[in-house]
Design brief:
Elements (H helix, E strand, L loop, with lengths): L1 H33 L9 E7 L5 E4 L11 E6 L2 E5 L5 E4 L9 E8 L6 E2 L12 E7 L3 E7 L6 E8 L2 E9 L7 E6 L5 E10 L5 E3 L3 E5 L6 E2 L2 E2 L2 E13 L5 E11 L6 E7 L2 E7 L1
Length: 281
């Protein structure tokens, strides 16, 4: 009986030892193969919000060994966008997102250090501010807001020449209830895009959704392409003349554009939401 008890004890001890060894190997294996994709670990900074037209800037200190930088990887909406960052500061580019598109930023860093996001507020929505009834017609753009504050400002913006251009600045009425606004439209031919930019006293910007208006205006043409004194437009419009570096040399509104002061060379005419090339002779 004593011998049988001893044998059973040895078997139980062996089983326990094997179980401990198996579990140890399992956790080492899981840690080794799962670490790179474990974006919810304690070594991860997670930011949630909505894109408001600005990128994020991050301070990236050295680790304790003073050789490696802190950040390992950066994810935007679960997609890896940066890794092996070799600088003390970096920018997370969000410009490919749509305004007000939800965004989650995950910064995976080493255990002995922590990066610092310098402007996390730019992806945080002002929960009190709401844009409503944003529409455009043939002559104007109108909208309503709720939750605005006195001293804040709004800007009517139009997408022209591949960037957002401010058309008008409007002070906030500061009403806790709905406030209505309107502004003159500046339609070009084809599809026109507008949005409202709201900035608070701290300079943080919030954007409305983008609205579109299909204009019935005819497309603007111009002549001549080899200019001596003037450019003639098919109808009156806002315009800009730039050099090859994009420097604005002349801007205005009308049907005739004076060019006498331009030197000989290649220039560009921005008109009707398109860019045309011409030669000054």
């Amino acid at each position: 009986m004593l011998q049988l008890t001893t044998v059973n004890s040895v078997k139980d001890s062996t089983k326990s030892l094997l179980r401990v060894i198996f579990l140890s190997i399992f956790f080492v294996f899981a840690s080794f193969f799962g670490f790179a994709d474990d974006k919810t670990s304690s070594n991860t900074i997670i930011l949630n919000g909505a894109y408001q037209g600005k990128n994020l800037y991050v301070q990236n200190p050295f680790t304790v060994n003073m050789k490696d930088f802190c950040t390992d990887e950066v994810y935007v909406n679960s997609e890896k966008v940066m890794s092996q960052i070799k600088s003390s500061a970096y920018e997370i580019d969000l410009s490919y997102l749509a305004i007000n598109e939800p965004v989650t930023i995950e910064i995976i860093h080493k255990a002995d250090c922590k990066p610092k996001v310098l402007n996390a507020q730019v992806i945080r929505l002002n929960s009190n501010l709401q844009f409503t009834n944003l529409v455009s017609n043939e002559t104007s753009i109108s909208w309503s807001t709720k939750g605005e504050k006195i001293g804040d400002k709004m800007y009517v913006e139009q997408f022209l020449y591949n960037s957002w251009i401010t058309l008008k600045e409007i002070p906030s009425k500061g009403s806790s209830s709905n406030s209505s606004y309107s502004s003159e439209s500046h339609h070009t031919s084809g599809i026109n895009k507008y949005r409202i930019k709201y900035t608070d006293k701290d300079g943080t910007a919030f954007y409305s959704r983008v609205i579109e208006y299909q204009s019935g205006l005819p497309e603007i043409t111009f002549y001549p392409k080899r200019v001596s004194n003037k450019i003639y437009l098919s109808r009156g419009s806002d315009y800009e003349i730039t050099d090859e570096k994009g420097v604005v040399l002349n801007k205005g509104k009308g049907k005739e554009i004076p060019c006498e002061t331009l030197k000989e060379g290649v220039y560009y005419l921005n008109v009707d939401n398109k860019t045309e090339k011409f030669l000054k002779k």
